Amino acid sequence: xxxxxxxxxxxxxxxxxxxxxxxxxxxxxxxxxxxxxxxxxxxxxxxxxxxxxxxxxxxxxxxxxxxxxxxxxxxxxxxxxxxxxxxxxxxxxxxxxxxxxxxxxxxxxxxxxxxxxxxxxxxxxxxxxxxxxxxxxxxxxxxxxxxxxxxxxxxxxxxxxxxxxxxxxxxxxxxxxxxxxxxxxxxxxxxxxxxxxxxxxxxxxxxxxxxxxxxxxxxxxxxxxxxxxxxxxxxxxxxxxxxxxxxxxxxxxxxxxxxxxxxxxxxxxxxxxxxxxxxxxxxxxxxxxxxxxxxxxxxxxxxxxxxxxxxxxxxxxxxxxxxxxxxxxxxxxxxxxxxxxxxxxxxxxxxxxxxxxxxxxxxxxxxxxxxxxxxxxxxxxxxxxxxxxxx
Length: 391
Ligand SMILES: NC(=O)c1ccc[n+]([C@@H]2O[C@H](COP(=O)([O-])OP(=O)(O)OC[C@H]3O[C@@H](n4cnc5c(N)ncnc54)[C@H](O)[C@@H]3O)[C@@H](O)[C@H]2O)c1
Prior knowledge:
- By secondary structure, this protein is α/β, with parallel strands linked by helices.
- The protein has helices spanning 10-19, 32-39, 48-55, 94-106, 122-130, 145-150, 166-178, 192-223, 227-235, 256-266, 274-297, 320-330, 356-362, and strands at 2-6, 24-28, 61-64, 75-78, 84-85, 90-91, 111-114, 133-135, 154-159, 186-191, 302-305, 335-338, 346-347, 350-352, 365-368, 382-383.
- α8 (192-223) packs across α10, α8 runs parallel beside α11 and α11 packs across α12 (320-330).
């Protein structure tokens, strides 16, 4: 199959890598630097999995900025950004719409599969204007994009209408993605509006779960209790489960905050409490962490160890650590930052130090959302809630 993937980000690149082993794949991006890097055989994203794929010299696809590439496509996969636009209280889906418009102009017979996360009802609406449109929610985690797409928890394809030719196309797409899955995942064909809901409710649940264990941790810290003991005891109930229960400075990353915010907005006129409470709980947690760290620092120099919040990722988008830095700045705290992925010398007006040794010797307290092995020599200075050393 001739496949064009629009958007060379975490989602688009991982699909390009996996699909190009048995299909002809091209990647289209509007960012010239990314296109050039891919064509030079260099990962355009700071990510260990992608870096080792590109280092292997087996890159099976080319990148382009030329929309003429759509002309020969059987399938166009859209993996462009859908940031949350707070002023409009909904996703900015303009990049997805612009791909749909380009494909309609260049190759109206091509099928389009939206992998970008969109609001509830977007695909049905789009199918009225652009016809051959399907939606498949993407569940990968940054830093584990290839691993997750090789072992997907499920493959879901949403059709705007439960009739032909949509159903046959949906089955073809499930076959396409199943080919590189090594774990026989459950597969579902459902309405596109239901599939969009699956994506948003999944991420809102994950956000709520993180917020829940963070509130447990806030409670334990405030009462002088052993948080880890409580978490272990609670998580031993198989209905709750001993996973995804590691306290942090707040949920964040590119997807959880924006998807939970979009779902809250999609609830307009429908009674709800949990989704909104999840959003406000996250801010409450960050404010609590800031109070705790200020107490511990006693006016000394606070070292921020990594602005990225997840192990193995250098993505700063919606990082809870960045929000904590902003709140500390409001409190006029003294900060220095260690973030090796930053090229700038300063961030938010604070000095960025590239040597961990220098950073650690200067800081009175080191704030680490996730603790790396490299912090072991300085463990007495570290403030973290990374109790389980997990996600
Ligand atoms: N990152 C994740 O963990 C993840 C997981 C599941 C779903 N998603 C969803 O997938 C989508 C993409 O996320 P991502 O993290 O891969 O994004 P990203 O920001 O890493 O990459 C998106 C790419 O699209 C390019 N782009 C922007 N407009 C374009 C256009 N009109 N045509 C072609 N390319 C264009 C950008 O230059 C960028 O390289 C989003 O909707 C996101 O919510 C992301």
